Amino acid sequence: MKQMGLISRQIKSHKYKYCKKAHKIHDNVLGRNFSPTVPNQVWTGDVTYIRIKGGWCYLAIVMDLYARRIVGFSLSDSPNTNLTTSALKMAYHIRLKPKGVLFHSDQGSHYTSEAFSDFVESCDDMTHSMSRRGNCWDNAPTERFFRSFKTEWMPKHGYEDIDEAKQAVSAYIWDYYQSVRPHRFNNNLTPLAKERLYFNKTSYELSKKS
Asked: Residue 139 in contact with residue 29, Cβ under 8 Å?
């Protein structure tokens, strides 16, 4: 690596504030079954930090595991319930309020709060699943997305401010990750291409039956 002028980039650890207030914990219903057979069957959510000048901002995403597509996201200067609820609301409305979604997250206070639980319960037959405490592998695909963003897109020293971070995240998700970047899980199709293939096949089968 030294001869070729290559430098290793390591993602630094980041500690979130600990909340002592009692929150609602859910069982790990997903159980690392990361390969749903249809869209809107399983969504996952998580929060990561993004460095900006003088501090941090926080990104919450919602991923549809079928094609690893990001269906909701939100940025804030605080990793709180408003952040995670905003990302899930975006996903729920963009996907036209699907019924029976299994939503999986970790046990962070921004997912176990009463306000977040209330929104999940307001969604049509949505079930909340949670990783075991301290086990990041229970939500591996979502963690992988954050790693890809930080190594492929985010500058080494982060962004100037939260507005610049928002523009960068939006560009990565809409202009690159969804429609340009091939994904090994999708047999090297992009998330949009895999979903399009599914819906085209479904429409064709329905037309044959009619």
From this structure: no
Mean pLDDT by 10 residues, the chain (210 residues): 70 49 82 97 98 96 98 97 98 98 97 97 98 93 97 96 98 98 97 96 73
Q: How far apart are CA 7 and CA 24, in angstroms?
A: 43
Q: In angstroms, rounded to a whole number, what is the distance separating the alpha carbons of residues 76 and 60?
A: 9
What is the CATH T-level fold of the domain 42-203, as seen in this structure?
Nucleotidyltransferase; domain 5 (3.30.420)
Q: For the full predicted model, state whether its pTM sits above 0.90.
A: no
Vertex 169: Cα angle to 43 and 156 (nearest 5): 120
Helix H or strand E encompassing 70: strand 69-76
The terminus-to-terminus CA distance of the chain in angstroms comes to 60
The answer to whether 28 and 130 have CB atoms below 8 angstroms apart is yes
What is the rounded distance in angstroms from the CA atom of residue 151 to the CA atom of residue 203? 38
Task: Return d(Cα 169, Cα 125) in angstroms, integer.
Answer: 30
Helix (H, G, I), strand (E, B) or coil at 95: coil
